[in-house]
Amino acid sequence: MKRSKIFIRLIVFVSIVCVLFSATTAFAKIYHLTILHNSDHHGHFTKFSWNGIPDVGGMAARSTLINIVRAEVEKAGGHVLLLSGGDVNIGVPESDLLDAEPDFKLMNLLGYDAMVLGNHEFDKALDVLMKQREWAGFPFLAANVVKKGTGEPLVDPYIIKELDGLKVAIFGLTMEETKILALPQPLETLEIRSVIETSQELVPKLRAQADVVIALSHIGFYETSGAGYRTPGDLKLAQEVPGIAVIVGGQSGTVLEEPEIIGNTLIVHAGEYGLYVGRLDLTIDSDTDDITEYTYKLLPVNLKRQVTYHDISYYMYVDNGYVEDSEVLEFIHPYLEQTAELLSQPAGEALVQLVGDKKIIRSQETNLANFVTDSMRAKTGAEIAFCNAGGIRADIAAGPIAYRDVLKVLPFGNTLVLLDMTGEQIRDVLDYAATIKPGNGGFLHASGLTWTNNRGIPEQGMIGGKPIESENMYKVVINNFLAAGGDGYTMFKEAPQYDTGFTDASALREYIMKAGKVAPKVEGRLTIIE
């Protein structure tokens, strides 16, 4: 009898344990989360040519791709987040002329969940940024951008999305170097705080509120990703700030075929211009909040490869091809009509290619840099013109030049500023310019002046073929970005200034129109001894 009672009690105990285990298991849930992302859009809302390959990218094809993925994921019971790594602004005239209105409104139409502020979101006045936020209708994020004095965030530092019980925190990080790379005026009332310190303070708080923490960053992949300046970069962020499950990055144009894994953090980058949409599929255990599985793929947006047969070029998709979304095309059409007539106006003809590719123009003298600085002098009558390489954004191909081409080269709407500078002050400019490393947007181009950079030491400075005289006064023209101390050229702020109101693009266009046919050359204005 005793044995029977003990046996019965044992059975009851085991049964209770099984029931409790089953109940616990029943409450546990596995979540499937898909993150779609792109970065550094730079005004590419319509399809475009890329390295000679026609009709790639564009938001109409991107819309189709995104909705196909959404349909697949939602049918399987998962959830999709669509994120942007910033720099929606600057790069395509049709967008630039309209303050990127079509881009932000299309992002709203495509259903973006959040965007981090990139440095190019500060290329215009803050009221333009606030207007863009209204057009977008989704959160702009930047945890480390605050108002001076109050510490109040300029935009949302983070959001928490709840997806069928899964809480996902997304916070934004804007590169600290924005205060050097963007026009100073929009940043006068703002402070851009340390990326690492901000994250170290914020992430533990978000971990207490959410199951998964995502950093939406515009700080670049490597520490050398800051347009020639040192930046923490996503690798260092992951190393120094535990608790971030995923870093969705931007700024550096990095194309990662597979996530970079640092500790328990996945880092993903999908290049620039919307050429790819990154797709990260996560399986998340609700008990532990751990990512138990992941897959990643870069989805090309109508990228093609060239096949030549009998000297004729044919093109085939490198992956799937996507039919452009008719609703998006209909939305785009009025904007293209609005800008087409102005942008198609002819300016002249290039007899040679004018080189503005950033891989070249940020490390050596080019014919286009010479032409741009010459046009600045011609417009203002200055003796010397200086231009930062980062202000020149595109080549001009040999052949007809339209106003559109000019605006691609000089998209920022910078104005020309005249300064009276002594020879000693000009030497200060060259002292600083000589320290700028190749690849940096602050790499200096000039007209009316020649000099040698001998391992970081300026030598043989000549103005109009004569040595620089310390006490002489010289009339200098620069863009308003440099005039405000941009790219670290603070010495320009010390000289008397007059903003002419002429834009650099209008000066270049006028210079081309007067010449008709242009073939500028590399003339030895800058000699670099390494």
Automatic annotation (TrEMBL):
GO CC term (a single one): outer membrane-bounded periplasmic space
Record key words, sorted: Hydrolase, Nucleotide-binding, Signal
Superkingdom, taxonomy of origin: Bacteria
Gene3D superfamilies listed in its UniProt record: 3.60.21.10, 5'-Nucleotidase, C-terminal domain
Gene Ontology terms, MF aspect: 5'-nucleotidase activity; metal ion binding; nucleotide binding; UDP-sugar diphosphatase activity
Residue ranges occupied by any Calcineurin-like phosphoesterase domain in the UniProt entry: 34-250
GO annotation terms (biological process): nucleotide catabolic process
Listed InterPro entries: 5'-Nucleotdase_C, 5'-Nucleotdase_C_sf, 5'-Nucleotdase_CS, 5_nucleotidase/apyrase, Calcineurin-like_PHP, Metallo-depent_PP-like
Domain 5'-Nucleotidase C-terminal: 362-494
Family, similarity comment: Belongs to the 5'-nucleotidase family.
Name by which UniProt lists this protein: 5'-Nucleotidase domain protein
Species whose genome carries this gene: Vecturithrix granuli
